Amino acid sequence: MYNDIKLEKGLYNLSGKSFTAALEELDPSSAYSGTSLEKLDAFERQLKRYNIRISGQDCDCVEKFFSSTDTAVLFPEFVTRSIRKGFDETILSSICAAKTISSCGQYLGCTLDDSADYTTSEQTVGLPAATVKESTEATVLAKYGRLINASYEAVRQQRLDVFGVMLRSIGVKLAAAVVKKAVDVLAADAETITTGSLTYENLAALYGSFDCFDMTTVIASPEVASQIVAMEQLSDSAADPNGKIVLPFGSELIKTPAAGNTVIGIDRGFALEFITSTDLVMETDKLIDRQLDQMTVSITCGFRKITPEAVKVLTIG
Fold first, then answer.
1. What residues contact residue 270 under an 8 Å CB cut-off, 6+ apart?
2. In the beta sheet, which residues pair with residue 265?
């Protein structure tokens, strides 16, 4: 049971396992099916065990994690989860077709040569071929990170929900740097329409440039996105229940400063591969020992275009 788990630093250092995964092996969530705890994962059950409230009216302060040596072990996971939540709330999930875990800093994927026409063939004639082969160009993964200066004395009395929001904001900005690389990869060598000004007709032409694939997503800078939503043709449009703006031809509009003066249309199910050699990485020992003066968080990742035909670009000006 979760009340019997021995919490120790070593749970963060098991090869190939996150802290929560290590806890889950000791305290499987499947054992709580049909109980009041079935909606909690192993980490959340430890918060309940030690009565650490990270949200709500009676939210605790940071120092609650350091009330014992056991509870201090939980603090790095709280920090990591807060930053990861901000990281995951960005547009990455809306533009990546697949996520690949790489064991090293360079990744060689496969390429597909499928340029031959799909036509009917006589029984005695060979079928047109599609060829899958290893890429000749490696994707080099880059490290993105942040150094966070925060002494224990400065944050010990801070409510955990407020501190969590601060950490989430770091995750959002960290993801923004990663998204810039993703947009650069999408736009590189893509089929492009060039126009002097942004009009609805140009957007429709971008939509019409897709053949086999669909334009499920439109990526634009905040400035360009504001021009799009101000178009007369979108006057009757409204955000869906999740707050997403959907253009009349069915594409979700998402914004990032990385898009600059381009509007990028993609089929999110085919366009981009997200490659990472690490999850978000924290220096756990310092956090457990209350040495919060310098916290670091980082992720090593890169991107590769999977299907070039699933990406089209509209360049303005």
1. 97, 213, 306, 307, 310
2. 218, 312
Arithmetic mean of pLDDT, 206-227: 96
Six-digit token pair at 34? 């049909």
Close Cβ partners of 174 (under 8 Å, ≥ 6 residues apart): 83, 86, 87, 144, 145, 146, 297, 299
- pLDDT higher than 80, residue 145: yes
Domain span holding position 253: 182-275+305-316
- Backbone dihedral angles phi then psi of residue 32, each to the nearest 5 degrees: -110, 10
Residues 250 and 295 in one domain: no
Strands (E), 141-237: 142-148, 191-195, 217-220
- On whether the CB atoms of residues 254 and 229 are closer than 8 A, the answer is no
Dihedral pair phi/psi, residue 115, rounded to 5°: -85, -15
Contacts of 247 (CB under 8 A, 6+ apart): 203, 218, 228, 234, 237, 253
AA identity, residue 240: D
The position carrying tokens 């533009």 is 95
Q: Are residues 149 and 234 in the same domain?
A: no
Residues 65 and 148 occupy one common structural domain: yes
Determine how many CB atoms are found less than 10 A away from the CB of residue 154.
Answer: 12
Residue 127 within a domain: no
Helix (H) or strand (E) holding 201: helix 200-208
What's the pTM? 0.86
Question: Distance between CA atoms of 111 and 305, rounded to whole angstroms?
Answer: 9
Do both 211 and 154 map to the same domain? Answer: no
> Could you tell me which residue, 281 or 263, shows the higher pLDDT?
263
Q: Please give the tally of structural domains in the chain.
A: 2
Amino acid 199 reads T
Residues in the chain, total: 317
